[in-house]
Description:
Elements: H1 6-12, E1 19-22, H2 32-43, E2 46-49, H3 63-76, E3 80-84, E4 87-90, E5 93-99, H4 105-122, E6 127-129, H5 144-155, E7 158-162, H6 163-173, H7 177-183, E8 189-195, E9 198-202, E10 205-209, H8 218-231, E11 236-239, H9 247-265, H10 273-276
Parallel strand pairs: 1-2, 2-3, 3-6, 6-7, 7-8, 8-11
Antiparallel strand pairs: 4-5, 9-10
Helix pairs in contact: 4-5, 7-8, 8-9
Amino acid sequence: MRTPHVPEMLETRPPVGWVEVHAENYLAAGGPRLAALERIRRDLPLSIHGVGLSLGSAEGVDATHLERLARLVTRFQPALVSEHVAWSVNSGVYFNDLLPIPYTEESLALLCRNVDRVQTVLGRQILMENPSTYVRFVASTIPEPEFIAELATRTGCGLLLDVNNIQVSAVNHGFDPYRYLSTIPKSAVREIHLAGHAVLDMDGEVLLVDDHGSPVTQEVWQLYAAAIQRVGPTPTLIEWDTRIPPLATLLDEARRADRVLTKAAAPVRPVPEEKRDGA
Length: 279
């Protein structure tokens, strides 16, 4: 839910199943933004998506930030709370990006400690989102989907499967996004993100950038359909954070996702005997 759309959301109550907000936009003690969210929360289930805990940081989780997030979660009682497999803070300096971590046993243990701490403080499961990446570490010894699957196993966290991030990273690093998808433990996936990405020409090489500033591409829609076939109907969010369009554009994207979900949820009709026999 983006700020320019809030007045229209309040006035028209569009037919959406739920909304998600970035936690860091609502950490104040009060004010009109929180009041508007209170009104929307009365009508719709809420998901809180954090971008600032820096769970991949070797410095651990900032206690003050975590306490403020805990107050927000207690106040709004969201259906889902999520964060990222990434880091973004160093020595108190917050970077305006979600930066990658190496996939090693050491970084996995560190990430597990941080996730455990957050879940203990919040008193609930959180979901961890797979990243979009543009570089890989030579030191990495664990493939990303196996790393994320092990994180879920060790901590009991759920997974937020960002299908666009899979596609972006697959093109940037040359791996098969469908094989990646097949490795993710389907029972752990509790939310899905869809978004658009930018396509850049880097001296003749294609680079995809997860900028959340355009419609979902056909390749991502196809991967999403495969994801739903694997994990079953799952709460799905359309992310649009840059070059924000009218709310109607987001609602059109959401309706397309609904069609995929409805098709997956439809009961399988038995094939008549004569059809199976080729008659």
